[in-house]
Fold this protein.
Amino acid sequence: MTLDHDDDEEFGDFQDESADSEDEDADPSFDEMVKGEKGSIKANFSLDYMKKIVEYYDARDLNGRRRHTWKSTQHRFKSIPHRQHIARFRHYIDQHGTKTEKIQTVDDFVYEKFEEARDNALLYC
């Protein structure tokens, strides 16, 4: 006994109506490229620069109120398109950098050790 089924016989005339309704409900101004850009924006900033932005935004006066509004922060750091990036930057600071930065640090370390080993091997040959 096999469990192979020929779905074309049973559902051959079935049309998926949900696919058409999704297109009708979609926001025409939505740009899928923005989603890709959001993922890559963190790669544009160093950890020190992210710290600088967060410290500027979180600065408090003597009364405990924020010294800088989001608007003034965005004006000073024009490369930050949305307030949500401040929260992301806090996360990266807590994690001591982005994953890409960590991988680059390990890559640099391994390459340096490789060059040292190669130089030592060449000296003793």
In short: The radius of gyration is 26 Å. The chain has seven helices and no strands. The chain has one domain: 34-123.
